[in-house]
Amino acid sequence: MNQNKTRRSKKSITIVDVAERAGVSVATASRALSGRGYASDAVKERVRRAARDLHYRMNAPARNLKVQRTNTIGLIITNIINPFYSHLANGVLDCANELGYRVLLGVTNEDPDLERVSLKVLLEQRVDGIIAVPTGQNQTLWREAVDMHTRLVLVDREIQGVPQVDAVLVDNVKGACAAITYLIGIGHRRIGMICGSSSTTTGKARVQGYYDAHQSANLPVAPDLMQGDSYNPDSGRRALEALLTLPEPPTAIFASSNILGEVAFSAIRARGLQIPGDLSFIMFDDSPWAALTTPSVSVVSQPTRSLGYVSLKLLDQRIQEARQGNAQAPMKIVMEPELILRESCAPLSGSRPVEFAGAGR
Amino acid sequence: MNQNKTRRSKKSITIVDVAERAGVSVATASRALSGRGYASDAVKERVRRAARDLHYRMNAPARNLKVQRTNTIGLIITNIINPFYSHLANGVLDCANELGYRVLLGVTNEDPDLERVSLKVLLEQRVDGIIAVPTGQNQTLWREAVDMHTRLVLVDREIQGVPQVDAVLVDNVKGACAAITYLIGIGHRRIGMICGSSSTTTGKARVQGYYDAHQSANLPVAPDLMQGDSYNPDSGRRALEALLTLPEPPTAIFASSNILGEVAFSAIRARGLQIPGDLSFIMFDDSPWAALTTPSVSVVSQPTRSLGYVSLKLLDQRIQEARQGNAQAPMKIVMEPELILRESCAPLSGSRPVEFAGAGR
DNA sequence: ACAAAATATGTAAACGTTTTCTTATCTGAT
DNA sequence: ATCAGATAAGAAAACGTTTACATATTTTGT
Question: For chain A, how long is the longest CA-to-CA vector?
Answer without folding.
Answer: 98
